[in-house]
Amino acid sequence: MSALTTKETTSSTVSWLRSPQVKAMWLTLIAMLAILVITFPFVWILLSSLRSVENFLSLDLRDALPRSLDFTSYRLALQRSDLFLWMGNSLFVAVLTTCLSLLVSAPAAFALTRLRFRGKDAASIILVLSYAVPSIMLAIPLLVLLVKMRLNNSFIGLILVHATFTIPFTSWILQDFYRSIPTDLEEAGYIDGASLVRVLWHIILPLSIPGLLAAGAYSFILSWNEFLFALILLNSYDSFTAPVGVHAYFTARGADESMWAQLMAASVIVSLPSVLLFAYFQRYLIAGFLKGAVKG
Amino acid sequence: MAKIELQNISKTYPREAKPAVQDLTLHIPDGQFVVLLGPSGCGKSTTLRMIAGLEEPDSGEIKIGELRVNGVPPQRRDTAFVFQNYALYPHMTVAQNIGFPLKMRGLSAQAIRQRAEETGRVLGLEALLDRYPGQLSGGERQRVALGRAIVRDPAVFLFDEPLSNLDAQLRGDMRVELVHLQRRLRATFVFVTHDQVEAMTLADVIAVMSTGVLQQLGTPEQIYQQPVNLFVAGFIGSPRMNFIEGNLIAQDGMTFLKSDLLELPVRKCLPDLAANPQARIILGFRPEDAQLTPTGEVELKLELIEALGSQKFIYGRTSQGQQLVVGVDPKSHLAVGDVVNLTIPPDGMHFFDAETGTRLSRHQA
Ligand SMILES: Nc1ncnc2c1ncn2[C@@H]1O[C@H](COP(=O)(O)OP(=O)(O)O)[C@@H](O)[C@H]1O
Ligand SMILES: [Mg+2]
Question: What is the pTM (predicted TM-score) of this model?
Answer without folding.
Answer: 0.82
